[in-house]
Automatic annotation (TrEMBL):
Entry GO terms, CC: amyloplast; chloroplast
The entry's keywords: Amyloplast, Chloroplast, Coiled coil, Glycosyltransferase, Plastid, Starch biosynthesis, Transferase, Transit peptide
Lineage per the UniProt record: Eukaryota, Viridiplantae, Streptophyta, Embryophyta, Tracheophyta
Protein name in the entry: starch synthase
InterPro entries reported in the protein's UniProt record: CBM25, GS/SS, Ig-like_fold, Starch_synth_cat_dom
Length: 981
């Protein structure tokens, strides 16, 4: 035990000794630290500086002490001193700490600060807690942190934190919206339930009143005419109803039937039975077993000599019908309370079923459109795969992307090197232009490649290619447009542009032609991409204001010696400013057709720019259209860009060069970028003298169609809703409805639809020829359209009279405007013919495909750009990311339209449907014999007759193709950005 005590004593002495050594060591370190701090203080005083820190080399994730020499600061004499600061250029973890006065000589104050591991710099000032600051002569104090992350690494950290924060906020917003939607649903259900209850109450009262009148006529029996056994019965019982047919109009009938119902025929004809002969009672008595409906008060019936649809003679009690009282076992008030409740439950069930159908349809519509939009974006990204593409195709912020480039299809063909020059966010990214990268050969042979890390705050990837690392030499910059690929998932979104359309037409309120559709549909599509779009339109006195929501007076201003009133309203979700000059220029009862149209529209263009100027608006792009708003281009450049509208750029679109060429030519000269409505039309008019000098800024961008207006799944004019999934059933129902509506033969025949203005531009001679050829082939033809020229209109009136006489069950010419009928034709036709002599874009063929109808078109303008012949255009379609979708022909004579209407793809037909015959034909000496023979049989209409499976699959194909504004809107946005460069 003594040894143990001794051992513990020795251990205790050793522990005390160690503690004493540690204390002396700490005192020594503290003295050394104090001496070092005093030394630093002295040096700082000598230098005349106000601040130093200890340790002098600051590293991340450590505590430091900051000292202030208050004798030379603006806080001298203050008893309360605080430090206020943050890290990394005041961008990270701000702090405020109180300073304490030190014990060593001088007026030194200090505090401790912890430096986080993410810091590369400390920024701070001192103050007295109120309004007196020491901020280093307005430059603030800063201390560099050594060995930590750099500025770019810190930027990535902030972006990652922002990304997580955005994800959190998005989840919160989604949950908030879910709760709000649930509340809206509960409120809507409550309101609907109250409405159902009120309707049930009214319906029960109505029925009660009506049945009271019927009950006055109802009895338990009529002597020698009818009676019921047993005489006491109620709902749900089976009874025998007896009838003496000898006393009524059925005395000589061989058979007797009861046609019955209940409660004043509430559910129509619900009791049908044949009566049997009854033996054992005087008279000609017959009877039937009848089950009395539950909860009925009155039985209603008549007698007849046969079942429904086949009876010819009735005993209906002198037109009053027969009525028998059904006793009820409960009081009347309780019965009607229960009846009201049953009606209420039925109304609720029917309403909820309708709401579920509407909800399911809306969800399917949204899903289809989202899938279509995603597919279109993929096509957009792959549209230049022969030149450039990326892996992954959808470039993600924060990820690595590899860019593949094929110089053989560009101006860099044959160059020994290719250099990649890249930045982000339309060349405005904080990192600036990345260093040029030499591209390396890829496994694909023709392509070279390089990889780039995409920053988290990127929304667009921008790049060009060059032959050298230096800035001289040949560049491929996509003809001045540069290459741009959208980046997904970034923490920064593209700043919205402000686009203003100045137009004299807009669908549906002021529509004459396709220009109106483009203004509305393009604006909606761009607005859906999160940009701001406004439209300026004349306030015609003939506007269809029923399609304008929230129309209110906005302001007035003076220009051109007249007051101009401005009205603001919403059209198709777009903000529209209506200009109404009080000089009456637009109180003419029409849009076009006045002798002073040029004066009217010139005044409007000037007034529109004046409105933008006086309103203080600063749009990024002003988009004007055709000759009618062409003056905007030169008025802006000559006048308004010098007086406050300096930010804007002018984009001008030619919809039809047939009208106003001199005005169009002048606008072309002044516009920053110019477009027309299809690539082929842009090439067709490239040689025109008003276009040719400006080809460097002239682009062809296809129009699209409005997927809301033209949607067979939500079309109120169709008997059956359909998508590509049930296109066969949907189009069959539509064809039957069309045949019935126009009194055509109800038969399964190929039907050619023609929906057009009847003008020479639309190929009216080809239309006439095609009508006869289609009829010769046993088909049906429906034409909808009218002619502005009375002579052409009269010509078609005569043709209609002839056809309705000779082919009354297979041809119908409707020479008028009929919106519902146009929808039914698009859906019910198998083919839609568009044989235009010239067609800048054309919407008819696009709408046809939206409805699963196969277009037959002449190769011109937008018709050529959108319809790819099933025989000849496979490669051309593939280059657009598509598959063949119709029939086209060249020439403007009858032979061309004959070929398209009648010829089917014999190669394709052989290959798919008769592969063995293909082999035999290819091996035979008589190959040309077979080709000639089948060139007649296997034609477009013959494809319908002979190859229905193939034809039906083609209908599905064309419906799946996206001809909306999804893709054109992306192309226009690229053009808008290029105009702003």
């Amino acid at each position: 035990m003594e040894a143990n005590l001794r051992k513990k004593e020795l251990e205790e002495n050793l522990r005390k000794k160690e503690m004493e050594e540690e204390r002396r060591k700490q005192e020594m370190q503290a003295n050394l630290r104090l001496q070092e701090i005093k030394r630093l203080a002295s040096e700082t005083l000598v230098k005349g500086e106000k601040v130093f820190c200890y340790p002098t080399i600051v590293t991340p994730d450590q505590d430091i002490e900051i000292f202030l020499n208050n004798t030379i600061s603006s806080l001298i004499g203050e008893s309360n001193i605080l430090i206020m600061g943050a890290f990394n250029d005041w961008r990270y973890k701000s702090f405020t700490v109180k300073l304490n006065k030190t014990s060593f000589s001088g007026e030194w104050w200090s505090c401790q600060i912890h430096v986080p591991k993410e810091a590369y710099k400390i920024d701070f000032v001192f103050f007295n807690g109120k309004d007196v600051y020491e901020n280093n002569d307005m430059k603030d104090f800063c201390i560099t942190v050594e060995g930590g992350m750099n500025v770019f690494e810190f930027e990535e950290l902030l972006l990652e934190e922002k990304r997580r924060e955005l994800e959190r906020l998005a989840k919160e917003e989604a949950e908030k919206e879910r709760r709000a939607e649930e509340e809206r649903r509960i409120e809507a259900e409550k309101a609907s339930s109250e409405a159902d209850r009120a309707q049930a109450r009214d319906e029960a009262e109505r029925r009660r009143g009506m049945l009271q009148e019927v009950l006055k006529k109802a009895v338990k029996f009529v002597n020698n005419v009818w009676y019921i056994e047993p005489s006491e019965f109620e709902g749900g019982d089976k009874v025998k109803l007896y009838y003496n047919k000898s006393v009524g109009p059925l005395a000589n009938a061989n058979d007797v039937w009861i046609h019955g119902g209940f409660d004043n025929w509430k559910d129509g004809l619900s009791i049908v039975a044949k009566l049997n002969k009854f033996v054992g009672k005087d008279g000609d008595w017959w009877y039937a077993d009848v089950v009395v409906p539950n909860r009925s008060l009155v039985l209603d019936w008549v007698f007849a000599d046969g079942p429904p649809q086949r009876a010819t003679l009735y005993d209906n009690n002198l037109r009053q019908d027969f009525h028998a009282i059904v006793p009820i076992p409960i009081p009347q008030d309780l019965f009607w309370a229960e009846e009201e409740h049953e009606i209420f439950k039925k109304l609720q069930s029917e309403r909820r079923l309708r709401e579920e159908e509407i909800r399911a349809k809306a969800e399917k519509t949204a899903r289809i459109r989202a899938e279509t939009k995603e597919k279109t974006m993929k096509t957009f990204l792959l549209s230049q795969k022969n030149i450039v593409y990326t892996e992954p195709l959808d470039v993600q912020a924060g990820g690595l992307v590899t860019v593949y480039y094929n110089p053989t299809n560009t101006v860099l063909n044959g160059k020994p090197e290719v250099w990649f020059r890249c930045s982000f966010n339309r060349w405005t990214h904080r990192m600036g232009l990345l260093p040029p990268q030499k591209m390396l050969p890829s496994d694909s042979g023709l392509h070279v490649k390089t990889s780039v890390k995409v920053p988290l705050d990127a929304y667009m990837m921008d790049f060009v290619f060059s032959e050298k690392e230096t800035d001289d030499g040949v560049f491929d910059n996509k003809n001045g447009m540069d290459y741009h690929i959208p980046v997904f998932g970034g923490v920064t979104k593209e700043p919205p542009m402000h686009i203003v359309h100045i137009s004299v037409e807009m669908a549906p309120i002021a529509k004459v032609g396709g220009l109106a559709d483009v203004v509305t549909s393009l604006s909606r599509a761009v607005q859906d991409l999160n940009h701001t779009v406004d439209i300026i339109l004349p306030k015609y006195d003939c506007l269809n204001l029923s399609n304008v929501k929230d129309l209110d007076f906005y302001k007035s201003y003076l220009w051109g010696g007249t007051e101009i009133k401005v009205w603001l309203g919403k059209v198709e979700g777009l903000s529209v400013y209506f200009l109404e000059p009080q000089n009456g220029l637009f109180w003419a009862g029409c849009i076009y057709g006045c002798k002073n149209d040029a004066e009217r529209f010139g005044f409007f263009c000037h007034a529109a720019l004046e409105f933008l100027l006086q309103s203080g608006s600063h749009p990024d792009v002003i988009h004007c259209h055709d000759w009618s708003s062409a003056p905007v281009a030169w008025l802006f450049k000559d006048q308004y860009m010098h007086y406050g509208l300096t930010k804007a750029r002018i984009v001008f679109t030619i919809h039809n060069l047939e009208f106003g060429a001199p005005l169009i030519g002048k606008a072309m000269a002044y516009a920053d970028k110019a477009t027309t409505v299809s690539p082929t039309y842009s090439r067709e008019v490239a040689g025109n003298p008003v276009i040719a000098p400006h080809l460097y800024k002239f682009h062809g961008i296809l129009n699209g169609i409005d997927p809301d207006m033209w949607d067979p799944f939500n079309d109120k004019f169709l008997p059956v809703s359909y998508t590509w999934e049930n296109v066969v059933e949907g189009k069959k129902a539509a064809k039957e409805a069309l045949q019935q509506k126009l009194d055509l033969k109800r038969a399964d025949l190929p039907l050619v639809g023609i929906i057009t203005r009847l003008t020479h531009q639309k190929g009216i001679h080809l239309i006439k020829h095609a009508i006869w050829r289609a009829l010769d082939r046993g088909g049906q033809v429906v034409l909808l359209g009218s002619a502005p020229d009375p002579r052409i209109q009269n010509d078609f009136v005569n043709l209609a009279s002839q056809l309705h006489s000779t082919h009354h069950d297979r041809a119908r010419l409707c020479l008028t405007y009929d919106e519902p009928l146009s929808h039914l034709i698009y859906a019910g036709a198998d083919f839609i013919l568009v044989p235009s002599i010239f067609e800048p874009c054309g919407l008819t063929q696009l709408t046809a495909m939206r409805y699963g109808s196969i277009p037959i078109v002449r190769k011109t303008g937008g018709l050529y750009d959108t319809v790819f012949d099933v025989e000849h255009d496979k490669e051309r379609a593939q280059s657009q990311g598509l598959v063949p979708n119709g029939f086209n022909f060249e020439g403007a004579d009858a032979a061309g339209v004959d070929y398209a209407v009648n010829r089917q793809v014999h190669d394709f037909f052989f290959e798919v449907y008769y592969p063995s015959l293909t082999i035999a034909v290819n091996q035979a000496d008589g190959f040309n014999f077979y080709v000639d023979r089948f060139a007649f049989l296997y034609r477009a209409i013959s494809a319908w007759y002979e190859s229905r499976d193939w034809f039906n699959s083609l209908c599905k194909v064309v419906m799946e193709q996206d001809w909306s504004w999804n893709r054109p809107a992306l192309d226009y946005l690229e053009l808008y950005h290029a105009a702003r460069k």
